[in-house]
Write the structure tokens for this entry.
Amino acid sequence: MASHKAEALLVSSPASVRYLTGYTGSNGLVLITPLESYFFTDPRYATDAQANIDCKVHICRKGLFEEAAAVVKRKHLKRIGFEPSWMQVEPFEKLKTKLGTGIKLVPVSGVVENLRAVKSPAEIARIRAAVSANSEAFRKTLSRVKPGVREMDVAAELDFQMRMLGAEKPAFETIVASGARTALPHAHPTSKKIEAGELLLIDMGATLDGYTSDMTRMAHLGAPSKRTIALYKAVLAAQLAGIAAVKPGVPVSRVDAAAREVLKRHELDKAFVHSTGHGLGLEIHEGPRIAKKEKTKLRAGMVITIEPGAYIEGFGGVRIEDTVLVTETGCEILTPTSKQLIEI
């Protein structure tokens, strides 16, 4: 906070509030000062918060920001940091009014997120469990995929299997796309029936004990064409090159470049339209972003995805994705599912 010249920090991001306090409810706010921390919630969560949160707990009959403003004024604080990515305009204006003149609100980005980027052993264990449940849900569902099944039915079965394995929810809306629709990187499952001779892309993640996982795998209904095999092999080579580049101290842009260079050799660089990956944890998208212009250096304990893809309109697309842990000497692929193109 000192580097931002802030005397206190208001944390309103649900994931960061959970990271700092363990709170899993839907309405929480944290005020951090150099000497004390304060947690604000409403009466619905009073019993849980008072039993499990070890900083000063305020149960608010009015708005959380109003109560936080009262503490700020009582403590004679003058510069309050806030998270600009999470502060909506209306609460911001109300907070500003309640604080009155003489107290300045300072936008402070990435403070808690930078802490969250490197996972503790306990967090890594939870991510491993989420990865394991995700892969098992994929395995159980795949046996039910056959020509004539709708994309949305496959997505529903994946989500059901995740929950049966202990997940509280999918980490994001499960992506199931078939045929030419696999060229849509974030295709929503539809009522389209999966047909023989088509590619099938499944991008899925499970949230278990608050922590997320992410995986993309490809299948083909029947024997794939030479063009499909060539496209798949190119993306797989790019994904393996990206993984091979993952080491502590390596700029994330170098990992991105490693994957792109392979696709460029196959004249598929223009067909790769998104970043190579992202961090994950309490949120499915966290720092660091694995992209061209990002300068962040990898650190042991970061958990990231490596997910290059190539998308050809009118034909189809391929994406292969693993959840990867950065270790002291390199990396560990957490995803146990085979990366071979699956024939159904």
About this structure: The chain has a mean pLDDT of 96. The chain has two domains: 2-116, 118-343.
